[in-house]
Structure formats: C-alpha cells, structure tokens
Amino acid sequence: MIAYFQFALICLFFGSNFILMSRASRWFGPVEIGLGRVFGAAILLAIVWIVAERSRRLRPRDLRNIALVAVIANAYPYAAQPTLIASFGAHSFFGMTVAFTPLLTILVSIPVLGIHPTWRQIIGVIGGLGFIGMLLNAGALQGITVGMLAMAVTVPLSYALGNTWLRRTLRDADPTPMSVAMLMISSLTLAPLALAPGLSTTLGIGPPTPRTDFAIAAAALGALGALGTGACVWMFVRLVQSHGPLFAGMVTYVVPVMAILWGLADGETITSQQLIAVSGILSMVALVQAPTQKHTAEESGEWSPDPLTADA
Question: Average pLDDT in the 267-271 region?
C-alpha cells in the first residue's frame, strides 16, 4: 500500500511540474530553472538525511554510477524541459511526451538488464501509447518543429536509461544519501552554464527578456525544487529499487492527466477526444499495475523479484 501511495504523490507532484516550469520561466532561464530544481531538492533531502537518517552512508564504489545517473536522468532533462517550454509556450504538451518512458524503459531494459517484459506489460504499455497518440492527434503537436519533437523524445529516453542503470547498479544503495549525491552532482553539472549568463544567451538558453513576475517565478521554482523534484526523487528511487523501473516509470502515464488538468486551469481547451484518451491511459495503468500473487509474495519477503517484472 505504501508503494501505491507514493505512486499517487509522485503523479500529483510530477504532473504539476510543467506549469511550475512555465511560471518560473517568466524570470529564470532554462538552465537556471534546472539548477534551482536540483539544488533546492538536494538541500531538502540533505536535511532529511541529517535529521532522520544520519546513520545511512554512501558506498564509495557507487559514486561513479550515481554520477552517471545524475547527468543522464537529472541534469539533462531538467534543463531540456524548461528549454522546450520556454520555446513553445504550451506546458501541457511536454507533460504528455514523458508518457513514452515506459515503452522506452522496456526497450532499454532488454540490453541493459537482460530481461524481457511480460505480455501484459507489453499490452499495457503499447495500449497506453496508443491513447497518448490520440491525445497528440487532438492538436498538441501543431506548431512544434521536428527539432523540438526530437528533443522532447530525448527526455523520456534519458529517464529510461537512468532508471534501468540505477536498477542494475544501485539497487542496494541507500536511497536518501544516494539521492542527495545525485542531485548535488546534477547541480555541479548545471552550475557552470547557469552562472555564465553570456554563454547561456549565446547557446539560446538564457533568461527571458524582459524578466517579469519575480515573486511568482521564485515561488514556482521553490515548489519545483522541494516537491516536484526533492520529494519525487526521494520516493521514485524507492519505487525503482523495490518494484522495478517499469512500475515506477508508469507514473508517466498519469502525468499527462495532470498536465491536461493544469492546462485547462491555465486556459487551454480540452476536447472530448482528449478526455477519452485520458480514460484509456488510466485503464492501461491499472492493467500493468494490478497486483498478482507473485507481487504479493514479493511484498511479504517470500519471493525475489525480477528487476523489470516485479509488478507483473
């Protein structure tokens, strides 16, 4: 039950990140937003670590893999997403594109983890992607260039690569200090760009001109770091370790639902076709995540889970 509660919270916080990035981009540039996210989250989790879990330690041998996951699955996508949102303007579309993560996770897991998904997982993921296609067909892709679409796809790909590598190499690492280290490494990766405004402007990822609504942007960035990143990373790492990357990655099927709801609140039009697609997405989540006898045995400690099919 705890895993499903964490799943719901991640969906809520993660699904709200896109409108928060949109609000933060009124004052901050994309790399500044990415740095604010990871550094704010690192501070929050460091406090949790010191206050509640100070006895937990990192293993030096894990640092190389932690750094790899940090760059691939944190630093890059957290800078790429606000770049896309600032360029296109409609935050809800990019909430939809992360739904490719489960399919990409299955594909990446075959060579990285050496395992294959069950037929139920394949049906659920492909069916969910079909409903996502319905959403995109309803008009979200209009006006988006091929280059922007390609960049948008690399975001869920980076999540899939990072999640499967975490599962393969860091499954037994302590989640809290690992998350702190991951976020601090991401901060160090993004800091040179964020602290060099001339370089950021040259690369086309500088702050908006003119900067506006500082109070709103700062509040959005604070929430993005503490809840949308810090709390999500802390819970997400636990889900990947305990239930596998596909189970955890399925949050990206619910994210479009939250993105659409925030888009509606922000003045976007939601069509009946989109509502049908949202219902289909949720049904696919239920199909893939429905508990089975094997899953019950895992939770009771009587079964050792397969890294990808732990929820099957």
Answer: 73
Q: How far apart are CA 12 and CA 10, in angstroms?
A: 5
Q: State the SS3 of 1-58.
A: CHHHHHHHHHHHHHHHHHHHHHHHCCCCCHHHHHHHHHHHHHHHHHHHHHHHCCCCCC
CB 113 within 8 A of CB 164: yes
pLDDT tens-digit map of 286-300 = 777 665 544 444 433
With contact defined as beta carbons under 8 Å apart, do 18 and 259 qualify?
yes
Q: Which of 233, 224, 275, 226 is nearest to 251 (CA)?
A: 233
* Single-letter amino acid code for the residue at 62: D
Residue 30: asked if its preceding bond is cis (omega within 30°), the reply is no
Distance CA 132, CA 257 (A): 10
Per DSSP, the residues of 120-174 read: HHHHHHHHHHHHHHHHIIIIITTT--HHHHHHHHHHHHHHHHHHHHHHHH-TTS-
The pair of three-digit structure tokens given for residue 200, joined into one six-digit string: 């950021």
Upper half-sphere CA count for residue 41 (Cβ side, 13 Å):
34
Structure tokens at 258: 């939250």
pTM of the model: 0.81
Q: How far apart are CA 199 and CA 195, in angstroms?
A: 9
- Residue 188: both structure tokens together: 């160090």
